[in-house]
Write a structure and sequence with these properties.
About 35% of the residues lie in helices and about 25% in strands. The chain is α/β, with parallel strands linked by helices and about 250 residues long. β6 and β7 form a beta hairpin.
Length: about 250
């Protein structure tokens, strides 16, 4: 059994994936028995070539088409043999011992099934990515009026917590999810029906039915995050379809 397994889903990420993979491997290589899966969703650029240049215990899986974020992560669900499993976005950078510290925290808190860390922009600002369960109003505001209705958005992103202590999370960000592998497998991974967006809200909700999701404030990851759904009509339509499925599912 591995101490840690990790999965990254890529799609045309040639500019960033090598940095992400190397930053992860360099911080866990001598600390854990690990395996890193990179699942590529039929990238049309040089993403695969960049991954092949990386060193470490890396398994590259190449899908013949873009099957979506959650479905791609689920490709390796049946072969996971680890104590903990990390779902990592291709735009994450690890610059410290956050993985080791989260591992130790999970070892000490067996009631936790999913741990989500503090997330920062490259310039050091906090990204407020812990959320309450979404409503149609919240998603509409964030999609159409991302810079308005500050009080409502602050409530949705739980800013009143201060992001300086552990707390329970209803909706954890999908950019970096630290699962207890047995819990990830018990909920059967992500919902394949959700191509992109809200797959993280859905899986957090299912984890919380059998375990706990907790915010880890003691260390951080760097996320080069850009919100694209309100700028791109195709992504906006994907977001709307995901929301429709999510709200039908959870009524």
């Amino acid at each position: 059994m591995y101490d840690i397994s990790l999965s990254i889903v890529t799609y045309n990420n040639e500019d960033i994936i090598e940095n992400t993979v190397n930053s992860i491997v360099s911080h866990i290589e001598n600390k854990f028995k690990y395996i890193l899966y990179v699942i590529d969703n039929n990238s049309q650029d040089y993403t695969v070539n960049q991954v092949q240049k990386c060193h470490g215990n890396i398994v590259l899986i190449q899908n013949k088409k873009n099957i979506g974020f959650g479905a791609a992560h689920n490709v390796i669900l049946g072969q996971l043999d680890s104590k903990y499993h990390l779902v990592v976005n291709p735009d994450i950078s690890i610059v410290n011992d956050v993985i080791y510290e989260m591992y130790q925290y999970m070892e000490e808190h067996h009631e936790i099934g999913l741990l989500t860390p503090l997330v920062k922009y490259p310039d050091g600002r906090i990204q407020y990515l812990c959320k309450r369960n979404p409503t149609i109003v919240d998603l509409f505001i964030r999609l159409v009026f991302p810079n308005n209705f500050k009080k409502r958005q602050d409530y949705f992103t739980m800013k009143e917590t201060g992001y300086d202590k552990p707390f329970e999370v209803e909706y954890a960000t999908g950019c970096f999810m630290f699962f207890r592998t047995e819990i990830f497998k018990q909920v059967k991974g992500f919902d394949d029906h959700i191509f992109l967006y809200l797959e993280d809200a859905d899986i957090t909700r299912r984890v919380n039915q059998i375990s706990k999701t907790i915010f880890f404030p003691y260390n951080y990851v760097i996320h080069g995050w850009q919100r694209g759904a309100h700028k791109n009509l195709k992504l906006m339509w994907i977001n709307v379809k995901s929301a429709a499925w999510y709200f039908r599912k959870w009524r």
